[in-house]
Task: structure prediction
Amino acid sequence: MKIKQWIFIFLVCYPLIGFAQPQKLLIKDSSRYSLSMIYESLVDMLYLYEAHVDLSILGYSEFGQSIPLLKISKPNASLKKNVLIVGNLHAREFFSSKFVLKFCNEFLYSIDATDGIYPSANKLLETYDFFIIPVANPDGLKIAQEDWQGIESFKQGIDSIKRIGPYSDWKANGKGIDLNNNFDDGNFEVKHGHLFEEEPASQGHKGDFPCQAIEAKLLQDYVDSIVPILTLSFHTKGDILFWADRGSHAQFKGLDTKLNTKVAAACDFKLAKVSRNPKEYGAGLENYIRAKTKRIGVCVELSAINDITAQHPANKFYTLVWEKCKNMPIIYLEELSRLYPQYFSIFEN
Ligand SMILES: [Zn+2]
Result:
């Protein structure tokens, strides 16, 4: 079901059929979130926090699934800086969309409540508008969860794609393109990562040309339209920040180093070395952000590494992710606000 239909059903039918009002904090730490659960949570947030939420659709995936876009803002006349938060570019990385959802929910709750976990929520909304894409790869998420409802007609095509491991290891989009290798950062031609696949595959295939995947094209065009000052793209695993590459690091004049060092220390994350070889690092969303918009882009790898491809079980979310990282987006923004007066000139074009 398309998200507009969800919005309609929830807004029209809630008062009529007397559904219980959802809890204000609604994300369940131990559940595995399916695509329909993500849609429902977003509609619940719209219903509960109407004054601060806009819910729309960025566009539709290769299989026609909605890619929801949530905006959190405080309406007033002043011009804000845009922040972009993205989850689940990679199909199997379920913790990332759940983290983004829970962050949005706790942040919205904190705007008006006195017992919210983010006391600076109101203040941050004086400076920033938040644009959130909790699930950038809905087809891939459905494949990795073997949730075929609504995509049955694509099943034969999916099964013709080279599959490395079980469905639960699926990383690509529905057409077998790794979205985080498909952005047009100027390094697409040289990109040849360690999981390289020539043909469409469940992981490692960068596509035949930049933005071949509808999902990558939608996201890249949106980035061009809002030019976020900070983009956090959430993945799993590693407890590590990929925050800089050789091609763009110098332009930030040390701001990226200060910002990410602060966050890594506060959240007990590792800082990756500045990526050296575009053959390895190129064509990711964060690389596009840095190279083409000259803004800060970080790939955040949530949860501890282990030696298997399989993701941590859903019920480990609270201890492996939430406890450790719940303040991460806030720390980024508070630190960016503190450092901005010293560095504003790097964002002037
Ligand atoms: Zn990933």
Remarks:
- The chain has twelve helices and eight strands.
- Residues 94-112 form the longest helix (19 residues).
- The pocket of zinc ion is lined by residues 90, 93, 235 (CB under 6 Å).
